[in-house]
Amino acid sequence: MTAPLDAPESAQQADPEAIARGARNVASRSLTQIAWQRLRRDKIAMIAGLIVLLLILAAVFAPLLVKWFGYPPTEFNQAPIDPATGGVYKDPDNPFAGIDKTGGISWDHLLGLEPKTGRDLFSRILYGAQISLLVAFLSTILCVFIGTVLGIIAGYVGGWVDTVISRAMDIFLAFPLLLFAIALVGVIPDSAFGLTGNGLRVGLIVFIIGFFNWPYVGRIVRGQTLTLKEREFVEAARSLGASNRHILFRELLPNLLTPILVYATLLIPTNILFEAALSFLGVGISPPTPTWGRMLSEALPYYTTSPHFVIIPGVAIFITVLAFNLFGDGLRDAFDPRSSD
Amino acid sequence: MNKRGLGSVAVATATVLLLGACGSVEEGSDVEDTYNFATEQVVNPSDATGGTLRFGYSDQIESTDPGNTYYGYNWNFTRFYARALMTYAPDVGTAGTAAVPDLAVDLPVPSDDGLSWTVKIHPGLKYEDGTEIVAEDIKYAVARSNYGEELLNGPKYFQELLADSDSYAGPYAGGDPLAGFGGIETPDDHTLVFKLKRPFADFPYILTEPQSAPVPVDTEEGKGELYQTRVLSSGPYKFAEDYQPGSGLHLVRNDQWDPATDPIRKALPDEITVEEELDPNEIDQRLMTGALDVDLGGNGLSPAAKGAAISDGQIKPRLDNPSTGAVRYAAINTQVEPLDDVACRQAIMFAADHDSLRRAWGGEIGGEIPTQFLPPTLAGHDATIDFYPSEDDKGDADLALEKLQECGEPDGFSTNIAVRSDRPAEVEAAQALQQSLERVGISTEIKEYPSSPFTKSYAGSPEYANSNDIGLTFYGWIPDWPTGYGVLYPLLYGGDNIRAQSNSNLSQLDDPDINRLLERSTETTDPDEQAAIYANVDRLVMENAAIVPAVFEKSVLYRPENLTNVYFHSGYAMYDFMALGTTNK
What we know:
Chain B: Pfam families: SBP_bac_5 (PF00496). Chain B: One of its GO terms (molecular function) is peptide transmembrane transporter activity. Chain B: This is Peptide ABC transporter substrate-binding protein. Chain B: It comes from Nocardiopsis ansamitocini. Chain B: InterPro entries: Peptide/Ni-bd (IPR030678), SBP_5 (IPR039424), SBP_5_dom (IPR000914). The structure holds two protein chains of two kinds. By secondary structure, chain A is mostly helical. Chain A has one domain: MetI-like (MetI-like fold, Orthogonal Bundle), CATH 1.10.3720. Helix content of chain A is about 65%, strand content about 0%. In chain A, α4 crosses α6 and α5 packs antiparallel against α6. The model of chain A is unreliable at about 1-10 (pLDDT under 50). The longest helix of chain B is centred in the N-terminal third of the chain and has 20 residues, at about 5-20. In chain B, the strands form seven sheets. Chain B has a six-stranded mixed beta sheet with strand order 14-18-13-17-15-16, sandwiched between helices. Chain B is α+β, with helices and mostly antiparallel strands. Chain B is globular. In chain B, α16 (about 510-525) runs antiparallel to α17 (about 525-545). Chain B has helices spanning about 5-20, 70-75, 135-145, 155-160, 205, 215-220, 280-290, 305-310, 340-350, 355-360, 395-405, 425-440, 455-460, 460-465, 485-490, 510-525, 525-545; strands at about 50-55, 85-90, 100, 110, 115-120, 185-190, 190-195, 235-240, 250-255, 270-275, 295, 320, 325-330, 365-370, 415-420, 445-450, 470-475, 545-555, 555-560, 565, 570, 575, 580.
């Protein structure tokens, strides 16, 4: 450790006038504005945010992009495929020319062909993004909703209510979620709750992730509520005769939004990975609907002849998770009053 | 041979030479083209004895007890230490599917009414401890493996067929172990008379099951499942030490075995070892490096390895690509709308892209494209059955559309396809079928189910299948014995064969003509008449469009250099373990 006496050079040489100006500026800015300014200066977070935005746009406009740059995601194209190895021929008219190790990446097929079926990988990755993001966002919303409501009640009401909810959180956290999900998705009937097929499966995965991950949000919200409820503005509201409901949702909730938002952003990549894991294990969405996790598991037998099929969905998951994580980290730093400006 | 025939041979030779030149075999290498040789001849014939034959398996052995096993590999392997009444002929090609005597002196003789079969066994044969093998021991072996709740792995054909035993609770129920078991009579120590409830022409095949290998009641002592710890040997090898499941099996020579009475087993190696619970990829690797001699499972290279191996010029000559006898197919449910109309089913038959379906199993090396249901290894296979031809096997959309018109669904219809989620080839085939049906407006949704309850509660439950609109079900079948009956009866006989659970007649076909023909096939023992019946049933099934055959499956087996006497045995659909020797000391 260096000696604490070594103060940063910049601080020593700071221009007093500038500090004064800064102080004035800070006084006139809201917390959100400060956070936004901090975020804008965080290049990594901004790039990550941009990627997140692009991913969302790509998923939303997948049908359009596929129409322009790809082929329908379930359309077979087996003429250029070697049946034995599943790889893509270098030259479809001359099988002896061997296998194209890049998997047929070209202007026609931007990310190459899927082994064996010859489906267009670019389209499948885009449509896979739809499933990944849909499941991740919906399950995050569900978990944030349950976690916030129960966390805020536990923190504010306290007493036996707090005890019951907190113990429930412990129980939920101890649940072997992945095993439970595999078992449940494996045995669900074909139609239930007015949903059928993949609609039901998406719904079920969202429910499992959301319903069993809420305690993570719940704990944070409860902790924040415990500190906030002793603050003056809550006291003031109470002394003015505000109802519990008013205090909970008008006084406390707005002050909780920031940590919730930050945590939700960090929860999304976890949920993307969870959905990918389920699909990888074969208990996610049914084929031919593409999902990244399933693509990855289908790719493993072909890693020698068609390495692109392992790499591309792997990279897609990697970029998405990394982007959400970095963006979430940036957001947290920006909102954190203790972080240096 | 006429001139034309000679001409095509010459062309074929030229093509082979050309292909050889273009292939990846390096110039100047002396790799001999022995690809697929073990399906046509014995490779490395040798009578040299000695050495250790090393088996490897990806799982635990199902059970070393010949009375408690159902897997083909184990029916093949238990012959090292258990002689059944009958076994398969040790021959290359389809000759290997014939049932021949093992402990029996001769083929079993049926009575005129077909209701009893008499078998005589060789006198003077001994177990490893020197005691004589007697008929009563075989009766006990059949009793313990078929009745009662103790040994559950194996099939229960004897229980289904034997008369006068319905109230028999099995030898482990207490009291005299054989009291009440009237299905087998033993008039003397070397004669058995099997009494049946109904005529059953394929009965000699039932006797090839290891369940008819003798087990003396005094040695077994009611051990039941635990008998597998040390099975008393009647074959050329015996357990070297007690077997503990999972820790491997070690066999050494049994000096009480008499080779003169046993034309089936070569018994070349001095010792046999089995390593259990190996990773499948490790087995493939070790076979190729010579650290292992035989894959006990016998299924061949994994899907990933086989494509790569076959395109490697150095490895290819060591590969065999035989038919496994399995037929993979999609059953069309004849009981759901609109598939209860034969024209709608025929529309599916015409629309199916068979090239694409076969690619799910690896294309040409994965199997042959069937136009009928009975695999080519079985008597009754009729190559002329071809009701739904198409160019390059890609399906015929025009004829399919015509059939849709005919069944009153000109715009197509929608139905569901059921598959087992842990069978990648079947899941892929389902998607291929989905694509080809979409071309004619038949839209399908793929339903994945876990493998273990698939036959019991999902696809194999007519109530579930019909109420969930399961129109197509992917399935595979390897008959328990290689006759048309073994394929056609369980999958296509109607009546009480359509069970509420674990139903294997997934088409739920109950056609009076087919039922009558299959009944007739059990009554005649004339092989020609049987073959004619099977071909006839096959024709009716295809006409009825109850089944979309996807592939007559082939496996890719690696044949290590140090193995001698290797040939592919059609009866067990793997190498004949009894013939193998090794140069590895």
